[in-house]
Amino acid sequence: MSKSKPKIALVLTGGGARAAYQVGVLSAIAQWYPRVHTSPFTIYCGTSAGAINAVSLASHASCFRLGVKKLSWLWRRLNTSRVIASQPST
């Protein structure tokens, strides 16, 4: 048997509030690693808003903290007016 590095998956659920909460947990995890470190995850999976988080992290796999920082920036700037355009019906 070869002694390859174990594969660790990150599975993120859907739901806007959950996805925002995920970024807080990911920020705490990122603090455990050096500033420039590859992602501890080798497999990313997400549904709906969790998929947005997963894609962002996967695209920054070479620097985990940067990926988390960019996600945090995104979620801090989202508000209802940027997601839903509502006007009173006439």
What's the layout of helices and strands?
Blueprint: E1 9-12, H1 16-30, E2 43-46, H2 49-59, H3 64-77, H4 80-83
Parallel strand pairs: 1-2
In the predicted model, the low-confidence regions spanning at least 5 consecutive residues are none
Q: What's the helix count?
A: 4
Major sheet size, sense and barrel closure: 2 strands, parallel
Distance between the termini: 70 Å
* Structural class by secondary-structure content: mainly alpha
Describe this structure in words.
The structure is a single chain. With 90 residues, this protein is mostly helical. The chain is 49% helix and 9% strand. The protein has a two-stranded parallel ribbon. The longest helix has 15 residues, at 16-30.
